[in-house]
């Protein structure tokens, strides 16, 4: 059974930090490119960060560059999103996403709320 389970969300003040984790099971995690998406109320889901299967390549949406870092541990089947200097506009549900070839999976999401 494929599972992507996010954790680490919560309420934080502006300027604070959070680290999101996404634990994967039921598929060959090390083959998959991994991403974090987010969706704020009334907005479309947007890609926040991507990391390739071997961690050789990462990319970020412009609004989080220099503040967020995506990483992965293939031995632990886990992908992380370190979020620093959080801003109220980062408030959203954050989703973990796995993709390889024609296979893709979503996590259930974790809420991040940044107060001003």
**SS content category:** mainly beta
SSE topology string = EEEEEEEEEEE
Helix proportion range:
under 10%
Roughly how many Å apart are the termini?
Answer: 40 Å
Question: Segments where pLDDT lies below 50 for 5+ residues?
Answer: none
Overall geometry comes to: globular
Q: What fraction strand?
A: over 45%
What is the number of helical segments per DSSP (H or I, 4+ residues)? 0
Radius of gyration: 13 Å
How many strands in all? 11
Main beta sheet, described?
7 strands, mixed
Could you walk me through the main structural features you see in this protein, from its secondary elements to its overall organization?
With 116 residues, this protein is mostly beta strands. Helices cover 0% and strands 55% of the residues. The strands form 2 sheets. Strands 2, 4, 5, 6, 9, 10 and 11 form a 7-stranded mixed sheet that branches. A 4-stranded antiparallel sheet has the order 1-3-8-7, with no helix packed on it.
């Amino acid at each position: 059974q494929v599972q992507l389970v996010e954790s680490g969300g919560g309420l934080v003040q502006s300027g604070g930090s959070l680290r999101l984790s996404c634990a994967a099971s039921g598929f060959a995690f090390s083959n998959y490119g991994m991403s974090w998406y987010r969706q704020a109320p009334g907005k479309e889901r947007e890609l926040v960060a991507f990391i390739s299967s071997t961690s050789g390549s990462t990319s970020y949406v412009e609004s989080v560059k220099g503040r967020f870092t995506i990483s992965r541990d293939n031995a632990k089947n886990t992908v992380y999103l370190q979020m620093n200097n959080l801003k109220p506009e980062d408030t959203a549900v954050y989703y973990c996403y796995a993709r390889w070839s024609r296979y893709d999976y979503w996590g259930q999401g974790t809420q991040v709320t940044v107060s001003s």
